[in-house]
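Consider the following assembly input.
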Amino acid sequence: MGYLLGLDIGTSGVKALLVSPEGKIISSKTVSYPLTTPHPGWAEQSPYDWWEATVKVIKETVSDNPIDSNQIKGISLSGQMHSSVFLDEKMEVIRPAILWSDTRTSEQCKEIYARAGGLDQLIHYVSNPALEGFTAPKILWLKENEPENYKKVKHILLPKDYIRYKLTGELFTEVSDAAGTLLFEVIKKRWSTSLLEKLEITQDLLSPVLNSFDLAGRITKNIAEQTGLKFGTSVVAGGADNACGAVGSGIIQEGRVMVSIGSSGVVLAQTNNPQADQEGRIHLFNHACPDSWYMMGVTLSAGISYEWLQKKLFNNRLSYTKLDQLAEEIEPGSEGLIFLPYLYGERTPHNDANARGVYFGISGKHDQRHFTRSVLEGVAFALKDSLELIKDKGVKIKEIRAIGGGAKSRIWQQILADILGEEINLLNIEEGPAFGAALIAGVGVGVYDSFAEAVNRIIKVKKTIVPGIQNNEIYNQGYQLYKKLYYSLKENFKELKEMEMESNLYS
Amino acid sequence: MDYLLGIDIGTSGTKGVLMDREGKIYALAGREYSIDIPQPGWAEQNPKMWWEATIQVIREIIKESKVNPKQVRGVGLSGQMHGTVFLDKNLQPFRPAIIWADQRSSSQCEFIYQKIGKERLAELTGNPIATGFMGSTLLWMKENQPEEFNQIYKVILAKDYIRYKLTGNLGAEVTDASSSLLLDIKRRCWSEELLDILGLPFKILPERVHESQEVAGYLLAEVARSSGLLEGIPVVYGGGDQSMQAVGNGVIKPRILSSTIGTGGQLFITLDKFTYDPKLRIHTFCHALPDTYHLQGAILSAGLSLKWLRENILHTSDSYPIFDEDVDKIKVGSEAIIFLPYLLGERSPYMNPEAKGVFFGLSLKHHRAHLIRAVMEGVVFALRDCLEVFKELGIKIEQVIASGGGAKSRVWRQIQADIFNKEISMTQSIEPAAMGAAILAGIGVGIYKDVEDGCRKVVKLKEEKTKPIPENVDIYTKQFEIYKSLYQDLKEDFKRLKEKGV
């Protein structure tokens, strides 16, 4: 039997999934690690913490189940995107990794636009806008702010590539994660020598780029001893967490779309015809399957908005089940109350860190129920923003699959279907990026002939949510106003931010 | 000893106070009642209910105070403004009164604007039109219930009905009359021009419009029997509750601003000459002192906003003093949340029933206490928005007197001091509207020379003052700019919201 091990180097911990070829979960374990915030807006982790946790989670996985490690045919990895690991010539970590959620690099983003020759030109090179979280601005930040450290840098790696290097001793990256560095020509699948030159970053610092399903190395003897894995086990390149998550939900053919309501919300559509958005409102990244890309929109506060409501506003006094019930008592449209879920700024489509949350249209008749339902609706509107952009790029939507914690709420499922005006499919299996990594491992080592075979064998639609036509009409009206509100308020968001800075109102 | 009785016929109840000439209170009584809402947006009350409450209140006061009724020298009245009591030929109310909160006459309001024109209307009445004002209500009735309209012998305001019951004399006085939309405010008499244009017969109004402090009549024998007062006690005309409250708080001279946070919120300032806002963002009414006027900005959801947050959203049993403790821990400016308190639309200064409430600037760090603080701040920003119109009309402010339930909150007073950038004082007056009415009674019977004399003797300031804190003033000054632009930038969206019915 060819068992597969999928690892996900996430932001809160590393998860290991041991999966049978039929997709059965044999073992699922997580070991967590801390995140530090040395300054407001900063976010760092130690790559050593990732590594220790990885060793621990593999050891536990191997020892706590009846499967002999001989039977593990392949290992692959998923990981948080964009975060930067800086290594010196001895392959030692120079400083903590700067994470995808770190926002210290606003100045460097401006610099990148300037050096690239504007947004158009940057998109021409790398198909994406310069966002604070991406890798390239972090490299410039290090160069400008910690020149001593920068001098020592010999390799810049992404989190899962660092862990793979530790497992195999081989230095590689692969397309789906390279795509998030802002240094990769996404459509041509190669490092952008032009942009590297303009940013004065030597290509030597970056690793060779594989396909996600390519064999990247084997478990070394030393690691085999440390972890209990078999010496020489194949390690497949793997992918960025979004790409792996998409594989794990079967989003591997044109027209399939994944809508994920986790802490943040993601709309991800596979495509074989990559087209970058000239305004940079939506991402274009390489997918894990051959000659395949995905477009992705992100709304930053999806589940987080609901959590904020539950914890901060309602003081933990109402369970999510209760909140769902309250929302259900109210008609679609929340009687004119509209929520903009920009509690943490917004990514798609506004790329606006100044944006903030808004309850609009409050009247005396509104109560907890309206405040709850409008949050669910507002998040779904934000997801619709991304879907509309994807449609604009010519992707014909054939099927939408919803995953994530939010998609487990019956009322949220229905609101999503009604607002998107599309059927929403729910899946039999929802194990996230680590599961996708295991499938990629299976493709890489030949347990499956292809991604399609793996996905068709394992991932099934469990339930379909059908949109209500009337509700969809109501929501189309609401959506028009939702969209307009951001533009009405855009300047005020900016002024509010400036005021906040001046008055130093930070907590 | 001389005692003076003041009665305030309010919307949620009738209250009375008995005080001596120094303003010392000997008894205080109240009776609550409710508003009838026969259809959504309508608001009615039965005048007989007011009358019964009044008699009960007086009886209780006489009993509780244990004063000799002979020593009660005069009675004064305060009352809810704008509304209409309909009397038939026998001077009986033949239907419930339509009160200020009634919204049935919105198309009549439009009609009045079109017919007279905003500019002429402003000049004549000093007032924007609102539903529930006597003028618009009468037009509504003429169009929609012509039979009832024909039954009208006289129309009067709430406290005028009570005065008629007390004395048997029917009359009107300037402060309340100026809130009817039918008064030529500059000349302080009914406007024949207006009545003509609106097609309303002059004869349905009490003939003359008197000054508030004049004696209107004397207590009837039968009322003396049922109330415990003595027959023949002088009763003065009294005034609308806004001006009576102002008198009871000593707000009788220019440059003293009264800021009230009750269910709604009001800014009030005395004018020694007639001034009005040609843009009709705020009201000008007659004040209770002869030949004076007052400006008034009225916001609809003041304390109501906080009550709404507490009851509808937070579902908390925490009392307002606990809110104060929580809010005190939140930084000035609520860490950049701004609340627009337009839960019921807004009167001053926007006169826009389509406006709605907004929480703007929410982020993950905010929790319930931030929202509570933001609501308190938003309400005061809304008042400041009215104050800007006062300033535009050349009004200077030297002193601010805070009153209403909102003034009981120390934090809310500090927010007022900081947003108005003025020191805030409070008076010791309990039930200022009823006390104001009692002061007028004192003038009518000659105990006080004039209002100034009466207020000097009766109204005392509390020692505690709330001073503005310069750093806070700076923060609020900046935030107020955003507050104002939010309304402008969202105006179209409020309209869309209404049109789409989403």
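Chain A has two domains: 3-244, 250-429+468-507. Ask yourself how this observation constrains the way the partners meet.
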